[in-house]
């Protein structure tokens, strides 16, 4: 555990030195504050709280932004160290390779956690300053949104580690990371929508659709945040889906955790067998 802690602290210091911590925090804070200012108008028209509007807006933003940030900060975690020549030095210390993976992963997740708490917390603070009425249910939904955003980032950090252990160089790792982002954030849902339009409910039943949504972590994240609260799902236009949801919140969280564990375990396995 001491080795994991040391490697984790080293990764955080590198993130501070490379300004990843500052950049991600400022980016999330700036965008969340912008959404607070731009999203306050609709509350009087649809009858939902100001924080519910922010949750819907931040959830939609996080689906695109958080995976991209996670892939960018972690895609060269292993292959980058190998190209810089620091990986053999790191492995010369009495540390196992799975500890290197777990320590680096923990450091990157903590960087993302700090950025999400400060960045998204700025939105809730801004609403408090403006005197908006923050309901307890909305605050709980907001905290779940922040926590699940970190989990979503952890999923893509784990995927980035798998890419980094498999890629022969940083250029390949960058290309693969962008490809994964496009596939899971954009292409998967577009392809699924196209299939549903063509199928017209003949073969793709509601049960099959619900299962297919679990195969994409961004869809799991969307279901987790936009179908939990009645007011949030109403404003997001997902009230019908929320009423017919077959997956519990616990199941959705478990699927997100599985999306973290499996790629990270594969990355540790590949890295153990990799020649350095």
Q: What do you see in this structure?
A:
The chain is mainly α and 276 residues long. The chain has one domain. It is built from 14 helices and no strands. It has helices spanning 2-17, 20-38, 43-46, 50-74, 79-84, 87-91, 97-129, 136-166, 170-199, 206-214, 217-226, 230-236, 239-243, 249-273. Helix 2 packs parallel to helix 7 (97-129), helix 7 runs antiparallel to helix 14 and helix 8 packs antiparallel against helix 11 (217-226). 41% of the residues are buried.
How would you sum up this structure in a few lines?
With 276 residues, the chain is mainly alpha-helical.
| Estimated share of beta-strand residues | under 5%
The run of helices and strands is: HHHHHHHHHHHHHH
- Please tally the β strands and state the result: 0
Q: What is the distance, rounded to the nearest whole angstrom, between the alpha carbons of the first and last residues? A: 24 Å
Mean pLDDT: 84
Alpha plus pi helix count:
14
How many separate structural domains?
A: 1
Low-pLDDT parts are 42-47, 233-237, 239-243
Class derived from helix and strand content: mainly alpha
Shape: globular
- What about the largest sheet? none
Fraction of residues in helices? over 70%
- The radius of gyration over CA amounts to 20 Å
């Amino acid at each position: 555990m001491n080795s994991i802690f040391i490697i984790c602290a080293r990764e955080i210091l590198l993130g501070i030195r490379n300004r990843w911590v500052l950049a991600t925090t400022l980016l999330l804070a700036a965008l969340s504050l912008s959404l607070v200012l731009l999203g306050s108008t609709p509350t009087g028209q649809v009858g939902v709280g100001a924080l519910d509007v922010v949750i819907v807006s931040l959830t939609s933003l996080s689906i695109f932004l958080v995976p991209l940030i996670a892939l960018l900060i972690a895609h060269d975690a292993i292959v980058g160290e190998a190209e810089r020549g620091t990986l053999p030095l790191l492995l010369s210390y009495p540390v196992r390779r799975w500890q290197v993976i777990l320590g680096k992963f923990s450091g990157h997740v903590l960087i993302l956690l700090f950025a999400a708490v400060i960045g998204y917390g700025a939105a809730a603070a801004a609403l408090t300053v403006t005197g908006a009425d923050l309901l307890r249910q909305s605050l709980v939904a907001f905290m779940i949104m922040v926590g699940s955003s970190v989990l979503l980032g952890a999923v893509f950090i784990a995927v980035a580690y798998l890419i980094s252990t498999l890629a022969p160089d940083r250029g390949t790792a960058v290309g693969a990371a962008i490809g994964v982002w496009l596939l899971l954030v954009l292409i998967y849902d577009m392809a699924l929508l196209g299939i549903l339009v063509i199928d017209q409910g003949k073969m793709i039943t509601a049960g099959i659709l619900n299962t297919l949504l679990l195969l994409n972590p961004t869809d799991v994240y969307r279901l987790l945040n936009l179908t939990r609260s009645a007011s949030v799902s109403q404003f997001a236009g997902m009230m019908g889906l929320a009423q017919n949801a077959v997956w519990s919140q616990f199941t959705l969280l478990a699927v997100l955790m599985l999306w973290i564990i499996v790629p990270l375990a594969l990355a540790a396995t590949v890295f153990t067998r990799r020649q350095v």
